[in-house]
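Q: Hi! Curious about what 3'-5' exonuclease DinG looks like structurally. Here's the sequence.
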Amino acid sequence: MKFAVLDFETTGTQSVGEIIQVGLAIIEEDRSISRVYGSYVKPEGPIPPFITGLTGITDSDVQDAPELEEMMMELVPLLDDVVLVGHNVAFDFHFLQSALDRCGYLPFQGRILDTIDFLKICFPSLTSYQLGNVSSHFGLQHERPHQADSDALATALVLLRCLDELYSLPLLTVQRLTELFAGEDSDLSWFFEGLLSERELETFQPEGDLQFYRQFALAVGDWTELAPPREDGDNPLEQMSFEAYLNEVTERLRSILPQYESRQAQEIMFGEVIKALEEERHLLIEAGTGTGKSLGYLLPAIYQSVRTGQKVMVSTHTINLQDQLRERDIPLLTEAVPFPFKAAVFKGRGHYLCLRKFEHKINKKDYASPREDTLTSAQMIVWLTQTESGDDEELNLSGRGGDFWETVASDTDSCLGRSCPWFRKCYYHRAKQEAGNADVVITNHSKLFADMKAGHQLLPSYEYLVIDEAHQLEEVAGKHLGMHMKHFTVSHTLNRLYKDSRTGQLPALRQILQSSGSEQAAEWSGIIDRLYPDLLTVKEAWDLLSDKLYALIPERADSAGEAGQLVHRLLPAKKPKGWEELASLESTLNLSLSDIIRKGDKMLAEMRDQESQSSADSLVTDIGGLFKDLADIREQVRFFMGMNDENVVYWLEANGNYRSKSLQLYAVPVDVSSQLKELFFDKKKSAVLTSATLSVDKSFQYMIDNLGLNEAQEEGKLSTVQLPSPFKYRDQALLVIPRDFPSVKGTVGDARFVDMLVRSLAEAAVTTRGRMLVLFTSYKMLRQVYDPLKEALASEEIAVLGQGVEGGSRSKLLRRFQENSASVLLGTSSFWEGVDIPGDALTCLAIVRLPFQPPNHPLAEAKAELLQAQKKNPFMKLSVPQAVIRFKQGFGRLVRTAQDRGIVIVYDTRVIESYYGKYFLYSLPGPKMEHMSTEQMVPRIAEWLQQDGAS
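A: Let's find out. The predicted structure is below.
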């Protein structure tokens, strides 16, 4: 095969753009790049400034360039008898065909392949498939991104990298891939057939350290062979004090990381954490950015666990932090700790692949959207040769990949346990076994509460607990101790059971029964036939109930924050009118569901007793799991519609654009402190809670009240510690407040406010050359600012990215922000925390309003009512502390390392005018604070940034 790798730079999209540059790299059959052809092309009109900004190609570059016809005379002969390749090839192919057409050539008839498909298949764990990122990941020279010849060469090198990978895969994997694509009439299918016939002729086949089982090549062995971390009987810490252990670890850290320096705050943290664990006390410890808090609790946790032989559980709020501990901190400590120990990461079950379901799915080609699902299956077949954990966070699944994953993820209800042919290879059981063996187990808050609800069946038992990102604990607890249900979950479960007579698990089971022809099979088929109309009744009742619940939400525009989200609270004491009708719909739903579950479970039990039904075994298990889900749904809807618990807040959420299809039901306890106290703090010997933001104006009282730690405090079983900051904030951060800035009522700014804000942001952005994050509390206001700011900065070639305006997830926006240094990112609530943008990517943080939660959010409203009933002031007891903690989180985005310098602009003058403003400013870790008139602000910022260059 001879490949021609093509890339065009154009002035715009397929319908209106013109070609301004072409690049073509030819790859010969021996996989050498024989030539790279490049040329500018003269367009008919001028090049838009945006394109010049992206590609660096100016009007003067192309003014003497050959015209399209001339360039095509050189290009067309190079396309003879080649396979055409491109990165996102449909774009370049479209331009090629219209250029061929315009210049009077025949259309290109050859094969076309896309390097994005190859990258997805060969490297399923890459975090981004963008050409620049892929090139730097592989260490390829890509000197001028967005210039056609450089892009074509980079794409050719990427293709060669993929081909190397395909030739090193085991033959079995290539056979499986070829089989996957065989059904479709595509160039990918043609490519894999060719690859397979070539690979089958090789005498020597690469196998590596892989295991071959049931026609798959796997990187994972049997988990039954996992060894404990140390031999029985020898305890390396019997004679070693914590000080001696720390000294030895520190020495080793210095030799591994020459730049390692002991930090005062971290030293204090080591001591406080080990003291809490040894003396069996609880500890609240606030550790700001740069403390090195992960090591601050991991080192004492390892010591405590190995010395006493008792597990320490570590819980984080985000999966991100969990993965960071696994990929960065644990490998480092494995080298630094002078004896073998084991730390295992254990996530919720849905993060692990179920090999039985996956095998069944690809053998049956049971696909919802064939083209995408085939590609996802191909990614996963290759991933099996690489992954040892089977954890979905390792996979980059795009588009519908998430829906695909849901159908192959492990879950309790459809697990065959020991009778599963995959049992010893099972990723979930492997993770469970590793957690059982480990000294320290790293999990997340969600799993912690799920385990508690399941009567401690999910996690290994533990007496010592470290909670990181502890300021999130209360919210997660509420979600798990209450209920939360989406319209989608119900319809998804029903569709998986039965979509129509051909699709769904029940029709699949019926098909197997038909072919077996026994008398009982006919009887069971009859039962299944009678279940169909009942399932349709349930579907209709659920859709109707959702419509009616959605209709209760008043069409108020801007609700709590994000785009188009509507929120409405329901009060048990004042049920909305027409509620009886909704309640009777719920009764219909409940009866039909009970009927289906009863008949279905009876039939499945009969099938299980009949040993011979082997081909249907896994189906019977999966259907049993879905019936169990239906039973859960029945209970949850009944609980929500009952609305009879005064200590629970009931509310509805939906998105105005998707209406009842996006409905979510919530029922959350107003106050979880007593449950946290009973379930955690009374039961565990020691719980260490840490976060960068636990105190408000140097006091921990807000957290102590909300987490149910009052009694522990009174009994002297609780310590609180605020660690000193390792950064020199007075030199590293400047906080400015424009004291004459107009104020805002509500969530929408008036014209004068928006105008001044846009002007001020634009001037500041020019001074800092972008690298600016602007945090809003209302999505409406973000929208008001987005267009005018974009316009104001267009001539400066500074891009404006808006959350929810451009589409794309939070992480995609962040990636674009980090890749393009001259940009301003506008974000709402979810950007206030957990966003890590180290170094130069972020220089300026603008806070438009203090982050008070909308007081009309049902949960905030109910908490305020509860405080009022206790004769407390909800504003000072709840709104201010919550806002201060978010404000500190927002501020924490700015300075992430000892070298960072940055500016914070607070446009909300309440911080200097109101009686509560001081709580915000005093809670910060001591930046330089100045207030001035709006027009003095930008010169002051410029001066402060230059000081840095001078010093």
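A: A fun detail: The longest helix spans residues 519-551.
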